[in-house]
Design goal:
Layout lengths: L2 H4 L3 H8 L3 E6 L2 E13 L27 E6 L3 E7 L8 E11 L1 H8 L12 H8 L16 E4 L9 E4 L13 E4 L21
Antiparallel strand pairs: 1-2, 1-6, 2-5, 2-8, 3-4, 4-5, 7-8
The structure holds a DNA duplex.
Organism: Streptomyces chilikensis
Keywords: DNA damage, DNA repair, Glycosidase, Hydrolase
InterPro entries: Formyl_transferase-like_C_sf, MPG, MPG_sf
Amino acid sequence: MNVDLLSRPAEEVAPRLLGSVLTCETSEGTVRIAVTETEAYAGTADPASHAYRGRTPRNAVMFGPAGHLYVYRSHGLHWCANVVTGQDGIASAVLIRAGRVVEGEDLARERRGERVESPRLARGPGNFCQALGITGEHNGANLLTGGPVMLSEGEPVPAAHIRVGPRVGVSKAHDWQHRFYLAGDPTVSAYRLSPRAKPSAGA
DNA sequence: CGAATGATATGCT
DNA sequence: GCATATCATTCGC
C-alpha cells in the first residue's frame, strides 16, 4: 500500500480503502480480510471523532503519520481498528467496519464461533477485529513495513459499486456522509441509526 | 477521586 | 426493538 494514498484526508482515503486487504499474522496463523465497509473520522473537526477534544494518550496514534493502526476498546469488550491517514500532526483516521475473509477462514470462525456464517465473520467493527485477530497490542503498529499486521492492495473496486451513507452508531454528527461500502455486499453491516442520534449540521 | 460515556454485539421479549 | 455486558478513558468536582 502506497503511503501517499493514505496521506490524504480520511474522507478521501476511506472509499479508496474498499477492496484493500488487511493481513494479520499471529501464533495461531494468518487471516486476510478484504475491506468492504469503512467510515472516515476527520480528526479535531469531527464531533464524532475520538480526536475531537484534542490529543490524549489514547488517540495519540491518530495524530501521527499515515499508515499506522489505531486500535481502541469499545464498551469494554470489542476492539475496533482504524487506519491512520492524513499528514503527521493532524488527526485523521478511517474506521474499518467490515470485510470479507479471503484467507484463514477456519481460524476466523474458530475465533468468532463455529456457527457464524461466512459473510458475518467480519461484519461490524468489533467482529472484524476479532476475526482478524486484532487486539490492543496492535495499537500503533505500522501497516506498511511488514509487521504482523499489514495493509495491501486488493482487487480494484469499480467506482460504480461504491455507496456513501451516514455513519453508524455514533451519537454525534451521524449524518455526515462518511460511511463507504460496497453495494449489495452481504458482508456489509446493516445500517442502524444510533439510538442517540440527533440532527446536526455538517457535510 | 468518582461518575459518566462510548465509532458495539448479542440475545431475549 | 430494547436491555445488557463490561472497562478504559475522560471530565467534573
